[in-house]
Amino acid sequence: MADDVNVKGMDESDPTIALTDRGLAYGDGLFETVLLRDGAARLWDEHCERLSQGARRLGFEPPSREWLDALPERAPAGEQVLKIMLTRGSGGRGYRPPLPAEPRCYWQFMPFSPMPARWDSGVNVRLCRLRLARQPALAGIKHLNRLENVLARQEWQEDAIAEGILLNDCDQLVEATAMNLAWHDQGQWWTPALTECGVEGTLRRALVERGHLTVTEHAPLSRLLNSQTACLFNSVQGLWPIVTCCDPDNQHLLAQWPIDESVRRLQREAHTLLGHVFNLPTS
Questions:
Q1: What is the pLDDT of residue 278?
Q2: Which of 63, 120, 199, 223 lies 20 to 30 Å (CA to CA) from residue 2?
Q3: Which of 113, 233, 162, 265 minimizes the C-alpha distance to 280?
């Protein structure tokens, strides 16, 4: 499969994207955002597996692992973020996809910009008006059609609000606009099931598999608001404790949480997986 992938690197001398590419026309593809340290990719197995599973879910063959493994080796030294975009390529007629597909893979390296103040002091979030549609066929994968996330993130411009909490169309907890969500209650950490919508983050998967998070289904907003503490996390920025959550109009405080030792323990587990070096307070 490695020889069958049409590669167009975004950092090459000709960063052209074909106007006929189905990723551009329909969001027909997938992407991964990977944290690198001197060419070593963090949670690389999880990223490669999610990309491969997503491609097969969409109905085309992914690049081989050998081909993907060569990408981080191209990275500049230091802390970088590798963005990979895998599309079905061009062809087909309208929405009808080509058979067989000739996928294209685009990639780009960007300097990593950590936000240690958010690791330390936590973040303020808001409840989004937008509700995520339930679509099990796409649930979990990181596909290119992220219009729901764009519309949700468009709801506020205040820098003091770091993220928005997203519910599905049954008003059940799903995720944040660009991060996964967890809350601590009854002596353990909980995170929403993502079988109907949402993105299964690679850090979320790693924490679940290691027994640090318990997946719960059909969780109403009250589960979060009545919890002892809460946090957001992804595989690039790490884990941010949540300190407040306001309503969509930013007029009423819905909940407020301490940054306690339970969130610091989970943060240390997450940051160990990502290689983040930061002296976290013990709370």
A1: 64
A2: 199
A3: 265
